[in-house]
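Notebook entry, structure prediction.
Reason for the run: the old model in the group folder had no record of what sequence produced it. Starting over properly, with the input documented here first.
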Amino acid sequence: MKLLCVTILKLASMILPLNGWPELLRFAFDYSKSDSPNLQESKFLILASLSQFKGQTLISSMEDIHQVCLECLTSTSRSLDVKLAASSAVASFIQVFSHSGGDLMLFQDVLRAMMKTLKEALNSQQEAAAQELLKLLIELGEAVPGFFRRELDEVLEHMMQIATTETLKEGTRHLAIGFLITLVEAREREPMMRELIDEKGMAPCPT
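New structure, fully documented this time:
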């Protein structure tokens, strides 16, 4: 199935820039709801890749993309691998959406679902999956730091907990620290984040 997904993505990279294959997005929507975990994962990977080629033209479908990803992340029957693929799609489209001037409030419930998925991965001792999620959150923090503004208290609390839990792997803890550093650095680029970060006592020491 993953080989098929790779083949589809290679074809998409050649056809989509030419405004071809309009059925691919609907195909991904339909099969993301399939009962097959492999099919679900593949379709979310396709959705994530679509943002590279058709990002700006998919703004009108953003509510559908939001709903499909949210349903996956809040489902109790979806596997962690599928939720990781959905998180990757979310991260890609949030960046496209923000660059087009879209309201990131649309995805706040998805952020909460991603944080819950991170907790589930850690609680089930699946740290490899947790690390992948942390990398996605760092990517979002670098590209769209304002996305975390409304959920900042919960996000910071959870990252601090991960960073200070000695039973977790060093790589996991370092990624949590990396996320915190990313947000601190973002205060220089995002005036609205600066005030919030400073309120939390996370402002960098003057040199």
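Summary: The mean pLDDT is 79.
The old model has been moved to the deprecated folder.
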